[in-house]
Amino acid sequence: MKLELLGGLSPKKFLRDYWQKKPLLVRGALPGFHGLLSREGLIELARHDDAQSRLIMQSQGKWQVRHGPFSPRTFPRLQKKNWTLLVQDVNHFLPSARNLLLKFNFIPHSRLDDLMVSYAPEEGGVGPHFDSYDVFLLQGMGRRHWQISAQRQKTLIADAPLKILQDFKPEQDWVLEPGDMLYLPPGYAHNGVAKDPCMTYSIGFRAPSYQELATQFLIYLQDHSAINGMYCDPDIRLQPHPGRISAAMLRQAGAALGKIRWSRSDVEHFMGIYLTEPKPHVFFTPPSHPVGEQDFAYQVAQTGLELNLKSRMLGKKKRIFINGESYTVGAAARRVLENLADHFALPMVENLDKESLALLYQWYLNGYVELSTTESMVF
Ligand code: SIN
Ligand code: CO
User: What are the residue boundaries of the JmjC domain, all occurrences included (predicted)?
Assistant: First the structure.
């Protein structure tokens, strides 16, 4: 299937030829797109302490970064040009932002990070840099001049408070208008400068470093592996140097540590928990007036249900993961819950199986899912 969003490429072709390989400029990726919120709307979001926001300013060649939350009074005081407000996780606040992310579901949700939105007055930008992750830069209101480079030279300005390339050598450039989009693979140098007051929507992906993965897996193993036995030395030898660690002790310890084992199933379990773990600043609010389980089932049948905007949900075979929790489910529940994980919502479902109903109701009470208020979506 060819996608206008990918400039007429099919997702398969995009993945084969561009994803993690080379940039793609798409004119009119989302025709008619002018953004999901206004400058004031973004400034309002930056007030929240659970929305991570940064203000980047440049004056006389010096960069400055401030971290939010910001009072709306901050902004009128700023210089007219040359600053940028960046707000992460906008998809945690706007249903329309999550719907935008769903358009990119040709990349698995396990790779999805967030929607970051920036506002910059004329000449604003965050400087030439590279990101470690794939990003789709979708232009909302206004125009932005993008310059990009495949340069290998990645030296950063030493005393800047953010990552700025010391020696940026642009190779290609374009002015993006509302609805245009630029895909960049990880490590591709870029610099975007606002030509007008402009807003850019960054659909960002996540990829853990192997070190991070290993560290988290070792933490996981603390609770998920058991090694029997205890150090013992009935045949201990007299040591002329009691202050030394004996080779026999090291041998025994090494053999015990060599018993640490894990299976594919442990890796699957760990990855599901790790990938759905909410970011540290994310909290869920239970409904203030929850309905009973029977009413809940009735409403799911009438209007359907949605994942809370902050929820992360994934599945693997019989395992369903939501917000760092893991559940093993039967075939009927698996079908229902996989549908929810794929689409972030469930259409009206009559006669929910008992297992799905019990889980969904528990998640509703936790604030992980919500009853839809509108008619069920059509997929
Ligand atoms: C921006 O939206 O100003 C910055 C996005 C980026 O360069 O990654
Ligand atoms: Co960037």
Answer: 96-222
